[in-house]
UniProtKB/TrEMBL annotation:
It comes from Clostridium botulinum CFSAN001627. It comes from the Bacteria. Belongs to the cation transport ATPase (P-type) (TC 3.A.3) family. Type IIA subfamily. The keyword ATP-binding applies. GO terms for molecular function: ATP binding; ATP hydrolysis activity; P-type calcium transporter activity. InterPro entries: ATPase_P-typ_cyto_dom_N (IPR023299), HAD-like_sf (IPR036412), HAD_sf (IPR023214), P_typ_ATPase (IPR001757). One of its GO terms (cellular component) is plasma membrane. This is ATPase P.
Length: 195
């Protein structure tokens, strides 16, 4: 996990015949090993996150991965620097909205979160005066996409529900496209201010 790998354990059990108790299938197993898998971020993402940082945009990772794995990926991408910036979703359950708001500016990685946690995160960020853009692709992302100032759904992998809840659809599912769109938007805004 510390090497940004998703870890899967493997075990087996020999069954004598087809008459077995389904409740006991997962007991008395023989452990045979662990498998580490990686789903690497796209090459352009690290550069885009660096561009965001230089433009005053804070990138936060919200993921279903384990906190250790998520932090390792976030550190590699330049999103987080210290493990104290990562938190499990269940830790949010014990925090009041006020407590989360007081800590939100220092948090960069949220692991194993529920749809309710995502909404709580968006609201906490907004309570500190942040303009929040949220990306998502699943039905469970719809509430947080709606809660954000700008909900961005994935156009290729996104569900119709996520697209319907969003303000914008990212046709190529590429984070770098968001960064390019922000740059263009800022240029247009600056040109309008000049005229």
């Amino acid at each position: 996990s510390k090497n940004a790998l998703r870890v899967l354990g493997a075990a087996y059990k020999t069954l004598e015949d087809n008459n077995y108790n389904k409740e006991s299938l997962e007991s008395n197993l023989t452990f045979i090993g662990l498998v580490g898998m990686i789903d690497p971020p796209r090459e352009s993402v690290k550069d885009s996150i660096f561009e965001c940082k230089n433009s005053g945009i804070k990138t936060i990772m919200i993921t279903g991965d384990h906190k250790i794995t998520a932090f390792a990926i976030a550190k590699e991408l330049g999103i987080a620097e210290d493990e104290s910036q990562a938190i499990f979703g269940y830790e949010l359950d014990d925090m009041s909205d006020t407590e989360l708001s007081s800590k939100i500016e220092n948090l960069r990685v949220f692991a194993r979160v529920s749809p309710e946690h995502k909404v709580k995160i968006v609201k906490a960020l907004k309570s500190k005066g942040n303009i929040v853009s949220m990306t998502g692709d699943g039905v469970n992302d719809a509430p947080s996409l709606k809660a954000a100032d700008i909900g961005v759904a994935m156009g290729i992998t996104g569900t119709d529900v996520a697209k319907g809840a969003s303000d914008m659809v990212l046709t190529d599912d590429n984070f770098s496209t968001i960064v390019s769109a922000i740059k263009e938007g800022r240029n247009i805004y600056n040109n309008i201010k000049k005229s």
